[in-house]
User: Fold these one by one.
Assistant:
Number 1:
Amino acid sequence: MTELRVSLVQSELHWEDPEANRRLLEDRMGTLDGGQTDVIVLPEMFATGFTMNAETMAEPAETSSTLEWMRLQARERACTVTGSLAIVEGGNCYNRLIWMTPTGQMTVYDKRHLFRMGDEPRHYAAGSRRQIVEIKGMRVMLSVCYDLRFPVWLRQQPTADQPFEYDILLCVANWPAPRRHPWRTLLQARAIENLSYVVGVNRVGEDGNGLPYAGDSMVVDFKGEPIVDHSPNETFVETATLSNDALKTFRDKFPAWQDADTFHWGD
C-alpha cells in the first residue's frame, strides 16, 4: 500500500516580517519530522503575508534567507517543506511556490493567475508553466491561491498512455474570510472533476491591510469529501494520510475520465 502523509500548518502570520514568521512557523511545526510526515505545507507568502510591497519584501533567489531556512527545515525534519514566497529573480518579482526536499533539491512554481483585485499584476510577474512533482509514487500538481478559480489550468491532461497527470492538487493560499465559501467549494470541485486528492492550506488572522482570514484549510478526497476540515479561525497543525491504492481503486470503479472532453490548456 502506497501512502503519503501530508501535514497542514494553518497559522496567523506577522505582516512583512520574515524573521518573525520563520520563528513562528518553526514553533508551529514543533516535532514534525520524517518519522511523522512526508510533506509539511505552509500558506501562500508565509514569510510576509500577501504583500504588494514586492520591491522591498521580495527576497533574492540567490541569497534568500527564507529559502535557506526551508532547506534547513527539510533536512533536519527529513521531509519535504513547501509554501510560497515573494522572490525576485532576473529583474522580476514572483509569487513563487517552493517544493524543498530533504536533500535540498528544489522545484519551483510561479503563480500563473495574479489577483488583479488585489493589484498583484502590478507588482509580480505571472508564471508560464505548470509544475508537477513526485513523492513516494504520488504525483503532486502545484498551484497558488487564485489559480484555484481557473479549472482549465488545473485540469488533468490525459495522454494515450496515462489518463491522469497527477494524484494530488496542492494549493497554498491567503484567501480572505469574506470569500471563504468559494474557497471551500472550489477545493471540492477541483477534487471531483480531476478525480484527485486536493490539499488546500490557508492562513488565519488579519493582515497589514486589515483583511481577515478564516483559514478553512482542507484535505479533500477524490469524491470531494473532506478528510481534514476544522472550524473557522483555528490555528492548527494536522497530518492526513493519503492512500494511492484507494485513489486507484476509485478511478477504476468510477472511470468518468473516459468520457472527458479532449483538450489541452494551450489550445
Number 2:
Amino acid sequence: MNYVVEIDWLAGNLDNIDVVMIDCRFSLADPNLGRQKYLESHIPGAHYLDLNQDLSAPVQKYGGRHPLPDPDILAAKFAQMGIEFGKILVVAYDDSRLAFASRLWWLLRYYGHNQVAVLNGGYPQWLQAGLPASTAQPVGRLATFVPQVQPGWTVPIADVSEVDEHSPIVLIDSREADRYAGIREPIDPWAGRISGAYNYPWQEVTDADGWLLSEPLQRQRWQNLPADKTKVIYCGSGVTACVNALSMAIAGYPDPSLYVGGWSDWCAHH
C-alpha cells in the first residue's frame, strides 16, 4: 500500500468521488488557529478535523494530553464526510511536516481503514505549486463507517515501565533531541525520557520544506534497531509519534505499537 500521494496526483483527482480530503492543520500553541486557517483557505473540497475536538478524547487525569477519540464518535464524522469503510481513499494534509496529518493517517488504519495517505509537502507546497485554494465548505454524502480497532496497536504504561536490553520491546522516543535529553521541556511538567528509549526525532522524516525523505532513506533510519523486537513508539502525547509510524510503513517495516499517553501520561503517573 502506498501511504503517500503527490501534489500533482491530488490536483488531478479533486473531482474524484472516491477520494476524500481532510485538512488537519493545528497549532499546539493556539488551538483555534488550524480551523481559522482552514476557513480562510484550503484545498478545494477538503473537510476539516481538529486535533483536540475530533482526533482526541477529552483530557483526563491519566492518558496524556491527547487520548484516543471514541471510535464510534469519530466514525460517525467519517461517515458524514462520505468515507465508506474500506473503499474511499482519504488524503490527509497539514502545514506542520505531517505532525497532525499523520495522527489521522494512524487513526484510520487503527480503525481498520487502510485506504489513507498523507499529502507529500502538505498545504504549503500545494500553494507553492500555484494550485487552487477555496473557502467553500464541502457537503458530505452519508456513508457507512464501522471501525474495526486493531489489537496490539497500542500499549499501556506497564509495557514501557521496565524496558532494558532484555525486554522484548525496543522503545522509541519521537520528540526533539533536547527534550529527549532532558535539556528543555516546553509543554509537560518536567523534562526527561523513559528509561531505555532510543531517540528518533519525528522531524527527521521530512526535510525543512515538508517533503518526505526517499524510501531508501526512510529504511536507513531504522536499520540499526534490533529486528527481533517489537517497536513501541511514543512522543509527548501520541501525535507526532505517528510520523515515525508513517516512516516505518513507507520503509516497509512492520507497524509499531503506540504508547498513546507518551511523556505527558508518564509525568502524570510519576
